[in-house]
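Researcher: Last one for today. Full complex below.
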Amino acid sequence: MKAFDYSRADSPAAAAALAAQFEGARFIAGGTNLLDLMKLDIETPQHLIDVNHLGLDQIDATPDGGLRIGALVRNTDLAADARVRKDYALLSRALLAGASGQLRNMATTAGNLLQRTRCPYFYDTAQACNKRKPGSGCAAIGGVSRQLGIIGVSAACIATHPSDMAIALRALDAQVETISADGSTRSIAMADFHQLPGDTPHVETSLAPGELITAVALPPPVGGTHVYHKVRDRASYAFALVSVGLILQKDGGGRIAVGGIAPKPWRVEAAEALLPQGAKAVSTRLLDGATPTQDNQFKVTLVERTLASVLAQARDDA
Amino acid sequence: MKFDTPATRNPIDQLKVVGKATDRIEGPLKTSGQAPYAYEQHEAVKHQAYGVMVGSTIAKGRIANIDLAEAKAAPGVLAIVTAANAGKLGKGKYNAAHLLAGPQVQHYHQAVALVVAETFEQARAAAQCVKVDYEATKGEFDLASVRDQGVEPKDEMPDVRHGDFAAAFAAAPVQFDQTYTTPDQSHAMMEPHSTLAAWQGDQLTLWTSNQMVAWSVGDIAATLGLPKEKVRLISPYIGGGFGGKLFIRADAILAALGARLAGRPVKVALTRPQVANNTTHRPATIQRIRMGATADGKLTAIAHEGWSGNLAEGKVELAAQPSQLLYAAENRLVSMRLAPLDLPEGNAMRAPGETPGLMVLEIAMDEMAEKLKLDPIQFRILNDTQVDPVKTERPFSQRHLIECLQTGAERFGWDKRNAQPGSRREGRWLIGMGVAAAIRNNLLVKSGARVRLERNGKITVETDMTDIGTGSYTIIAQTAAEMMGVGLEEVVVHLGDSSFPVSSGSGGQFGGNCSTAGVYAACVKLREAVAAKLGMSQGEAEFIDGHVRLGSKSLPLRNAAQDAALEAEDSIEFGDLAKQYQQSTFGAHFAEVAVDAATGEVRVRRMLAVCSAGRILNPKSARSQVIGAMTMGVGAALMEELAVDKRLGFFVNHDLAGYEVPVHADIPHQEVIFLDETDPVSSPMKAKGVGELGICGVSAAVANAIYNATGARVREYPVTLDKIMGALPEMV
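Model: Here's the assembly. Have a good evening.
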C-alpha cells in the first residue's frame, strides 16, 4: 500500500470540490473493496476523501411515490428497510444474496455500484490487465475464465461486474444522482451508469473524475412478483456464476436483468418483450452476440435454465 | 519403551479420564485471545521488525536482475534479503524446491526477496517497489500432456503386480474401465505460514507454525548450514495445517535470514495468495480403474493406475495406494507414475494418497455395483477381505468395514434409496443418496515425552508434539491424568518446543495415538520412580484418586515429590507388529444431496460417518476431527480446485474468494458414529487415528449421491453444476 493523505468532507459539495483539488483522489465509504485493493497495490490513490459523515444515510420517500436511497445507506439497512422489502423486494433479495453479513454492515449503496471486478488476473499485479494497467493486455483471455463474462465483453477485457444490488437496480430502472465539483447535480439512468469495456476497460462508469454519488432514486413501485436467483458454486459468500433478477407482472410481461455474465447488469428490453414465448426465446435474444470462452460456455445454457426456473417460481408465487 | 507385543490390560483401560468427551484444555486461552500464534508472539522478544516476501512472477526461468534502489530508499526499510546476500543455502530433506530463488526460478511465487522494515505497512509498501527482471523459459504445467513421461516411483510406491491382472480381466464376465481426474487442492488453513526469528549470537530461535518440530529443526539447520543444536523451534499453537505445515517454508528461512541481516528479530507471514503458489498443495491426479468380476459380483481383477506430477525432487501422490488393501481380488495391478511439472511443489495434504484415491475408487465401485445390478453396500461387503490381499498370511489387526457399512445403512435409512437415478423429486429438487467406504492406514512413529510430578502434586508433560487444532493438548493431559491417577485439572501440558523430547509430531493421523503412547511410556517410568520413592516397589502399585496404593498401604501421590520434583522421560518405539499385522482404520460415509433440477446447484442435506478406529481417546475432539474432515470432503467433491493457468504456470484463484471452500450454509446435519472397539496391536493406548479417516471417501459418497439424484456420472472433480446440467430434465 502506498502512503496517502486523508481528509474528511463535511458536505457533498465540499467532498466533490476536494476531489477536484487532488489528482488521483478517491472517495472512501465502507472501504470493503477499496482498502483490499490498496493493500494489494491495485488501487494507489494519493488522497482519500472520507464521505462517511455527509449525512447521506437516509432512505426517503420521493414526491412521486418512489424512494431516494442515500449513497451511504449500508447494504444491511437497505435490505432490511420495510418499504424496500414490500415494494422493491428484488432489491432486498439481491442485496442479501451478496457478500456476508459483516461486509453488508459496512458496504454502502454507492460503494456497491463502484466495486471493481473480481477477475483473478485483475487481482494479480504480475499479470497483464488492461483494466488495472491500460495497454498491458488481458491475461484472462485464453486463461482461466470460468467466472468471467460472455457478453458485452471486448478483445481488451472479459471481466464481469460483480454486484448483485446493481442487477436489481437495473431491473427497477433506478437513477444514480451525483454532484460535481462545481456544485452541479445530475441524474444518470442505471442503464447508462456502467460502461462496456471496449478499448478502455479501465473506464467503468459514466462518472466524471471527482463526481460524487449522493443517492440512488427508485421510481414508484411497479408491483409484480420479484424473484432473485443467484447461482454459484457454494451456498453462500460467493460471486455469481449467473444471477437472474425477475419482476413478473400478472399479464405475463416483466423485466429481467442478469448478473455474472457481463461488465454491467445485463438487461435487454427487446428480450423482455418475448416473455410470453418462454425462457428460451428470451434467453436467446438476451444473449444475442454472446462470445463465451470454452471455460464459460456453460453460462449460456445456465442463463436459460435459471430464467426458466425463476419464471416458474414467479408463477407459483403469484 | 518398546512396543512389540499386543497390549494387555493397563491403567488406560480404567477409562476414568481417557475416553470421556472432554473440552479442550487450551480452549479458553484460544477463545480469549491469549494463545499466541506465531505472528502474535509480541512478547517473545523485543524490537521485532517486519518482513514481507516478494514472490517470483514467472513460473520457470532465471532472475536476470533485481533493482532494489527504490525499495531500499522507501521509508522504514532496514534490510532486503535476496540470494545475493543470503549466503550459501542448502535445501531441507523435506523440501523439493529451494525456499529462496536465485538465479534459477523453479515456480511461481517462489521467494525472490524479503523486505524488512520497522512496520508491516512499510515492509509491504517497499516490497511492492522491488523490481525484478526475469528470463522466462518454457515449463510444463499440464499433467495430461506430460503423463506419458511419468516414471515408476520405485522408492515410494513400486508397482504391485499380484496374480495376472491382464488375463483375469480379459476373462472376467463383467468388466469395467474408466478414467477419472482430481484437481490440485490447497490446504487453505486459517492461519497462513508465519514465523518470528531471533538470533542470540549464533543461536537461532524461531516461533513458527509447524506440525513437525524435529523434522523442521533439521531442515532449518540444513538450509542455513547450522548445527541442529543451534536451532530452537517453538510452535505451541497452530491455526490449521492439514499437511501444509509438515515442512519448513519460506517464512521460516526468510525470517531467519532477515533477522540476521537486520540485526533484529524479524517476523514474516505469507500473504494469502502466497500460500497457494509459494507453499505446497495436494497434486492433481489422473486415475484409471479397471475391474473384472464374476456375474454374481465377486471381484477377480483390480487395476488402479494413477499419474501425478511434481517438480524434479518432488514426490508422487500415492493415489492408487488404497487399492492395495481395500477389496479382495486375486489379480491386482496397482501403480503410480510421476511426471515432471513446473507448477509449485505438490506435497502431503490430509490423507495424502487415500483422499484422491478414494475419490476415484469409490465412484468406480458405485459404477461397478450398478453394472452388476447389486446394491453398492452389498457389493462392497461381498468383496471384503480380512487379510492383506497381496500378502494373505498377514491379517488386519482390526477390520470392521462391514459393520461400518451396515451400521451406517441402518442409521441413514439406506433402504429408502431408489437405485434408479433421478427417481426422487421434492419440488424443484432432485434427491439422491450415496455411500463410500473409507480406509486410512494406521502409521506408527516413535514418540517421546517427559513427565514431572511437581512438588505441589501437579503433573507437567513436555513433548515437542504439536496441536494443529486437533486436540493434542487435551488427549495428552487425559493420558497423563489416567496414568498418574489424578484429575485432568492437575495436569499441565507444554507442547511444540524443540527443547522437549522428540515426538511423532502431527501428520498422517498418527499424532493422537503415537504421542499419547509416548506420554504413556514416560508415565510408566514416572510411576516406577514414584513407587520407589514411596517404598512401594515390591509390587504393582495402583495410582487412583491422587493416591498410590499397594496392598493395604495408601499414600498421597504428592508425597513422592515433597522434597524435589520427580521427572521421567521415555519414548514409545514400535516393533514389528506393523509387519505381522496390517493396521488400518475403516469407515463408511453416507451423503444425501439435493440437486436443483434447473441449475444443477448441489446442496448436501445430511451426512453420516461411521468410523472404526480403535479406542477413541476424546469423543468430543475426535468428532470435531471427523466433521471437519467431512466438510473438507464436501469441498473436494463440489468446489475445491486450484485452477491452473496452463500458459503461465500458476494457480490463478490464489485467494479465498477464488479458491472456494465450504461455508456454514454448505454444511448440513452431520452425524458421526464411532464403533466401540480397541486395537491392542496399535499401541498401549489401543487407539488409532481419525483425523484423516474422516475425509477418506466422503467426496465419492457425495458424487455418488449426485448420480443417484440426477443420473449425472461426473468423473472429473470437482462436481460443479456445469458438469451436471447436461443430465438434468428438459426445462419447459
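Chain A has 13 helices and eleven strands. The interface with chain B takes residues 1-3, 39, 41, 118, 120-121, 123-127, 139, 142-144, 146, 229, 231-239, 241, 278-279, 298, 301-302, 304-306, 308-309, 312-313 of chain A (CB under 8 Å).
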